[in-house]
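Researcher: For the record, we're logging two predictions in this thread. I'll number them. Prediction 1 follows.
Model: Prediction 1, sequence and structure:
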Amino acid sequence: MSGDIKVFPFTTKYPGLYNVLANNIKIKEDFDPSTPQANKQDYLAIWDTGATNSVITSKVVNDLSLIPTGMTKVQGVTGVEVVNTYLVCFYLPNLLYLNNLTVTESSSLTGCDALIGMDVIGRGDFAVTNFNGKTVFTFRMPSCEKIDFILDKKEQESKLMGKVYRKNPCPCGSGMRYQQCHGKY
């Protein structure tokens, strides 16, 4: 990966096994660079890979005095409904902000203020582990590399057997991949 690209990662750790991935984010109305910035407010967000798009509650709409930008049909657990859409800015825990983000409003979302869907998750790398009975999830933007547990396993096995594959770190200690260092053809 090029050194020119700035990567924004974060990791959320839980003390045990958790079935809901949540953290605090900041939300504010979408901004126009030519106008003064509105204050960001803290909200609890759940990360949901089963949601196509991100959602905010009526509480967020009221807190921020948001004005609808349109309406759309959404398929939820209770069926299809027509809801308002809004343009907002999400500030993730990695200090990255996503402006001009179209979200829908839900009056049935409980236990949180926002739901982060695949419209956000799909912009980066997202992984969850439950190693030693503790849930950890991590996210970074932009996507930096392919995450492949099968390939990782093969590389670990190759290290145990003394083989060096092209994408393994070079054994010379340069910090480069073997294919970019001593493995050049």
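Researcher: Logged. Prediction 2.
Model: Prediction 2, sequence and structure:
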Amino acid sequence: MNGKSMGAALRERLGGEASHDLFECLGQHGEDWRKNVMTQCTERIDLRLERFALREDLIKGLSDIRQEMAALRVELLRWTFAFWVGQVAATAGVVALLFRIMVQ
């Protein structure tokens, strides 16, 4: 925006020097406003990127926990199966012993 793009009525009412000063003031504040807006946008983008990174870390962490829980479930099933096999063997041994004692 230059002094010529300012309306003729405003230039006539303010005068040449005041019009120029007004134009400079608006130009300076406009530049400050643009810098402010850019700073705010950059900060918001950075904040969103940080949130996205945290969300990614959370998703990865939960995925790791799920995998560990699945591995623990398999391990628990193995131990349970071993326990029941041991119980069946012990019960079969006691029944065989009782049967021998009763047959004699």
